[in-house]
Amino acid sequence: MIEKSSLAVPKLIYFEEIDSTNAELLRTDRALVPELTAVVSASQTAGRGRLDRDWVSEPGASLALSLLLRPKASEQLGWITLMAALSVRAALQELGVVEPAIKWPNDVLVEGKKVSGILAQLDGEDLILGVGINLKAQAGAPEHATSLEELGIAADMDSVLHELLTQFRLRYLRFATDPDWSVELSANEFRQFSITLGQKVRAIYPDGSELVGMAKDIDSFGNLQIDAGELHTVSAADIIHLRN
Length: 244
Ligand code: BT5
Description:
By secondary structure, this protein is of the alpha+beta class. 27% of the residues lie in helices and 30% in strands. The structure holds biotinyl-5-AMP. The site of biotinyl-5-AMP has 29 residues, from α2, β3, β6 and β7.
């Protein structure tokens, strides 16, 4: 079922159903497994988004992946989230999706609807990178969700996963080998495919406070720069695009 993808990483552990692939990797004895170990599931009973929100992944309709990463420094979390979003976007384009785009920091949207979400969690020196991609329509998914099938793409889980792992490995290994060059390439890729930059946005911080301004650029940590009279650097927030 996931033969192609198994060849793309050193170790791949597959479940038909699990509570959450991120939770599974967090409770695994990771001393015994190599970096880029992948936990994959065809459905989750307790999939999670940021701030402990629900992530819907119903049987046969979604792909849930968590990758074990060991980045050199924890401040790289922002970049790794962005690189994951860039990888999902590129993978979807390879699979035939028309104009997939990135909403900072962790959503991949098509026609304004969310097809994929990313959740990076640090645990000591390990970073657990979770990616969810909707393969088919799901009864429990919110109205602003879409899926590959709804976008006219009939791709099996193995093909989607293989493309995603290939795209991510490329960016992650480049980042490990030459971080400065990698950041420059990824920043340019983000500028090309982001629907956030150049928009008037409302940033809602995890503590509930808000900031309204123009999304100008990202910095070398993957933070969003918002011009609200003066320039603010935002590392974690929900972004709402406002009409200009
Ligand atoms: C995310 O959070 O988008 C991160 C999603 C990460 C999911 C992966 S699956 C593998 C790994 N294991 C896990 O348990 N999680 C990761 P956030 O930006 O906070 O968005 C969450 C919001 O997206 C929810 O509050 C809903 O509004 C919406 N949502 C939930 N399920 C969705 C779905 N299937 N498709 C689109 N939107 C969804």
